[in-house]
């Protein structure tokens, strides 16, 4: 399975994104996913990691515990429980951080992803 297929599986089956674009481009494809709640909103590009700069960059971020991206959710604790039940590996368990409640997990593709919930109203 190529990295894009692995990413597609994780981001759709586990995280719940929906495919927006899946266009073959030679060995790879233009592959984007969107939130089912905002199909015309921001697209996440599932980019192949073959460029020589990608792996050192991703490795450095993970070693320093820096998420590659962050997504806002309504209930971090509920998402944590749901993802944990699906076998997702967390590097930071639910915690309060200033105005947000947050968690960080491994997306199985070499990235750390942060989920945040805005506290208060």
* The named CATH superfamily of the largest domain: 2,3-Dihydroxybiphenyl 1,2-Dioxygenase, domain 1
N to C succession of SSEs: HEEEHEHEEE
Class of the largest domain in CATH? Answer: Alpha Beta
Instruction: Give the percentage of residues in beta strands.
Output: 35-45%
CATH fold assignment of the largest domain? 2,3-Dihydroxybiphenyl 1,2-Dioxygenase, domain 1
Question: How would you sum up the global shape?
Answer: globular
Main sheet strand line-up = 4-7-6-5
Number of helices: 3
CATH architecture classification name of the largest domain: Roll
Terminal residue distance = 43 Å
DSSP strand count: 7
Q: Report Rg.
A: 15 Å
Task: Report a brief summary of the structure.
The protein has helices spanning 3-14, 54-63, 76-85; strands spanning 18-25, 28-34, 44-45, 69-72, 90-97, 100-106, 112-118. The protein has 121 residues and is of the alpha+beta class. The chain has 2 domains: 1-50, Roll (2,3-Dihydroxybiphenyl 1,2-Dioxygenase, domain 1); 52-121, Roll (2,3-Dihydroxybiphenyl 1,2-Dioxygenase, domain 1).
């Amino acid at each position: 399975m190529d990295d894009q297929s692995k990413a597609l599986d994780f981001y759709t089956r586990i995280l719940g994104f929906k495919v927006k674009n899946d266009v073959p481009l030679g060995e790879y494809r233009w592959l984007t996913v969107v939130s089912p709640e905002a199909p015309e909103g921001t697209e996440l590009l599932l980019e192949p990691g073959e460029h020589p700069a990608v792996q050192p960059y991703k490795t450095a971020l993970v070693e320093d515990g820096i998420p590659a991206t962050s997504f806002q959710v309504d209930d971090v604790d509920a998402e944590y429980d749901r993802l944990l039940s699906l076998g997702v590996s967390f590097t930071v368990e639910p915690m309060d951080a200033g105005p947000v409640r947050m968690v960080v997990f491994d997306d199985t593709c070499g990235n750390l992803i942060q989920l945040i919930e805005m506290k208060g109203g």
